[in-house]
Amino acid sequence: TGIPPITFHNAEKLEIAKRLLVFEQMSVTDTCFEIGFESLGSFVQKFSDHVGISPGNYTKIMRSTNFPAMFLRAVLTNWNSCKRNVPARTLYLERPRNHMLSAVVAALFNRAYPCRYPESWQLIRPTYRKSKLYTDEKGYLLCASVPTSAFLDTLVNFRPAFIGRAKLELGTQDVRIKMKPPTQFDPPVTLAIPALFYKQEEQRILEKS
């Protein structure tokens, strides 16, 4: 899988935690003990590190009535956190034959698996096979297809239809990633990718006001 067993196991537990917080409307404390953590502080820290947002804030965002609409609006307006003033790399996405891909999130992490808020991220439009990747940093790049609907169960149980990974080194100019359906051996994408879009859209609204 590319990651230690305990890391994989914790990622699976955090996926269950997301569902308990949103769909079962459990408190953070009850969720902590339900999935087997013995310390509330440890659970909050682990959740925040892996999901990129605290369990309390995650619950608040995902339960908000305007979340699906803001998610879709953010995707359509292509908001992202990439710095366009840095030298761009060329990203080639090898898309599966006879499959229409949705838009793809390209997120850069400093670990071999998606953990914490990414160093940078951007949206690749669905029609693009060749695009610009605005980062000159090294790290691990995750490309994941974005959900095509704004249904809450799809956004909480985030299982991209296609994913691809690559290790970026300093000086690398061309990045080629083969997009393929995930298997049971791929680490869960615990990062709350839909929340990335929400936070960007929320920031945009605050700036306009």
Structural features, described:
The protein is 37% helix and 19% strand. The protein is an alpha+beta fold and 209 residues long. The strands form two sheets. Strands 3-2-5-6 form a four-stranded antiparallel β-sheet, with no helix packed on it. It has a three-stranded mixed β-sheet with strand order 4-1-7, with no helix packed on it. The protein starts with a helix and ends with a helix. The relative contact order is 0.19. The model has no long low-confidence stretch (mean pLDDT 81).
Can you tag this structure with a few keywords?
19% strand, 7 strands, 4-stranded antiparallel beta sheet, 3-stranded mixed beta sheet
SSE layout and pairing:
Blueprint: H1 5-22, H2 28-34, H3 40-51, H4 55-63, H5 67-76, E1 89-94, E2 104-109, E3 120-124, E4 130-133, E5 139-145, H6 152-156, E6 163-168, E7 174-178, H7 193-208
Parallel strand pairs: 1-7
Antiparallel strand pairs: 1-4, 2-3, 2-5, 5-6
In short:
This protein is an alpha+beta fold. It has seven helices and seven strands; from the N terminus they run αααααβββββαββα. The protein is globular and about 45 Å long.
